[in-house]
Amino acid sequence: MSGGINGEFSTYCIAIWLYVGWAEAWNSLLGCKGKMVGIQTRRVLVYLMGITAVSSVAVMGMRVHRDGCLPRTHAELSSLKTVRLEKVDIARVNLLCAEGLPGAENLNVEECLITLDEWAELVRANEEKYSLQFFQEPKRYDHSLAKFKVVNLGLTLKNDLHCGYDTTLIESGAMNDVRSIRFFKSSESLFLHGFVESRMGSCTSLPVLMVAIGRRCGYPLHLVSCKGHLFCRWDDGVERFNIETACPGVDMKPDEYYTQWPHPASEQEIETEKYLKNLSREEVFAVFSRIRATCLEENGRYEEAAEAYTAALPAFPESMYLKAYLRDVTRKQGVKL
Description:
Elements: H1 2-31, H2 39-68, H3 74-78, H4 82-85, H5 90-97, H6 109-136, H7 145-160, E1 164-165, H8 167-171, H9 193-198, E2 200-201, H10 206-216, E3 221-226, E4 229-235, E5 240-243, H11 255-258, H12 267-272, H13 281-298, H14 302-312, H15 320-336
Helix pairs in contact: 1-2, 5-6, 5-13, 6-7, 6-10, 13-14, 14-15
């Protein structure tokens, strides 16, 4: 808190200093033309320039101060309280959870975020470009402008930007291997930087990409989980539908579909694992922490994995699986020691 206050104080000091400097400069300049410009006119001009200086620097300072509050490391992210975490961009949360993992050696969070902003601009441009299709054939989108926007988002990411599934996960059998966690070997296929660096990801990152870009476009998208899978959902309080990207194009499945796919889930599991609900930012962080933990575990970094699993527990205190994973990695850590 004190850092923020000091930052703001320094900004306003700079603004005052600029005001005084500009005032002197303009007084000197206009003083040379005293015969042409009256004293009152000079004062008005100097006053207006001063207001401009103070306002510009103050706005700049507010922006710097606001950005300064954002977490820039995984450690800073992990230390945030829930209220502040809710204000952090989901893409930043995801990227910071990849910090230090195998496959993230060249991770530059800020550059990745700039790229995502640029992709969002393309989505908006395509939405405007193809909006006539919706009005010409509204039935094709169930008379829903929201569904048109989601389809446009998905197709822009897949067709224009060529973001898709890492085929090596499929070819190697890791995608369907439920007896091991080799699917989680490299963070590049698990977190957003994989799309920025190679346009490749998986069902743990493509829904996150949809939500991250969609929110940049103003869409009310949420991340949702089911047993062994993530998907996203449009929910503005009036219209609500699920969005599936683990397929060619974009599909929309009912909640019932995800109670059985990709793995059947019991009513108890749905409740304790918080399946099928719009995840809060705290829960999203926990999901990413769990993915981080599994990547660390697969790479034999058991102590760090235990820390990551533990970080996920507050948001999922009743999760049977999370507790079991933590017990297992703690046992592995003991064996290794």
